[in-house]
Amino acid sequence: MSSLRIAALGPWAETDPLKKAQATLALDLSTPVGANQALQAPCPSPGRPPKPALLPHTHIKAKSLTTPEGRAILLHSITHIELNAIDLALDVVWRFAGMPDAFYTDWVRIAQEEAKHFTLLRKHLVGMGYDYGDFPAHNSLWDMAERTKDDVLARIGIVPRTMEARGLDASPGVKNKLISAGDHAAGQILDIILEEEIGHVAAGNRWYRHLCAQRGLDPVRTYAELIAQYDAPKLRPPFNMAARRLAGFEEAELAALS
């Protein structure tokens, strides 16, 4: 029987980034969810194009934003994050059975917004004379997805609430750098992304607390345990406290950051 969760496997496995984004945007939220179906992916990891080359994040070299190439490298890295984010959201949809229907429709909507972000950034790159795949990228986001693939609590606790929340913190500084270098169009795209990413992190917070309540766990203490267990990146300031509050982080969690 077809379902929204089965349909999510199509774009997840698609290797062409443009087709992946288009197929994600075409997913129909009115399709029956199939929450209790046990699914198998057609491939061991999401479909990826032959480029960009994936290197350790320490090997990714930035260049001065005073040059078009330097700005393109920075925007390429964000474009790559957004492509990964499509796969991360779709992976949550097909991989983890037994959640409420609203969980799956939330994450399909998030995948569709990530597809919009990827499309906007890639179009801007093309307008600069570059394209997605022209520069190396890293695989840190998907590495964390692999580490947390056996537990929905770990996945939701770490990926949106840690990895994606770091994007909330970084966005204002990146936007200011690009605008200072004269790229106002990129700044406008980052404004769109920040507004919608707040909603993505908020969904992570909402479902993380749902899972903690279901398992009788304290959310703040459990988060610290998950960070240690899965060796998640340590969060460093500056923190975008306003965006984090809008995304539903509690004051106890924000206090723990400092």
By DSSP (H or I, 4+ residues per run), the number of helices equals 10
Distance between the termini: 49 Å
Give a short account of the largest sheet: none
| Unreliable parts | none
The CATH architecture can be given as: Up-down Bundle
Q: What is the succession of H and E elements?
A: HHHHHHHHHH
Structural class: mainly alpha
Shape: globular
Cα Rg: 18 Å
Q: What is the CATH T-level topology? A: Ferritin
* Strand content bin: under 5%
Overall strand count: 0
Residues in helix, %: 55-70%
Average per-residue pLDDT, rounded, comes to: 95
Structural domain tally:
1
Seen as an oligomer or otherwise, the chain set is: single chain
- Which CATH top level class fits? Mainly Alpha
Structural notes for this entry:
The relative contact order is 0.12. The model has no long low-confidence stretch (mean pLDDT 95). This protein has 258 residues and is mostly helical. The longest helix is centred in the C-terminal third of the chain and has 32 residues, at 184-215. It contains ten helices and no strands. The chain has one domain: Ferritin (Up-down Bundle).
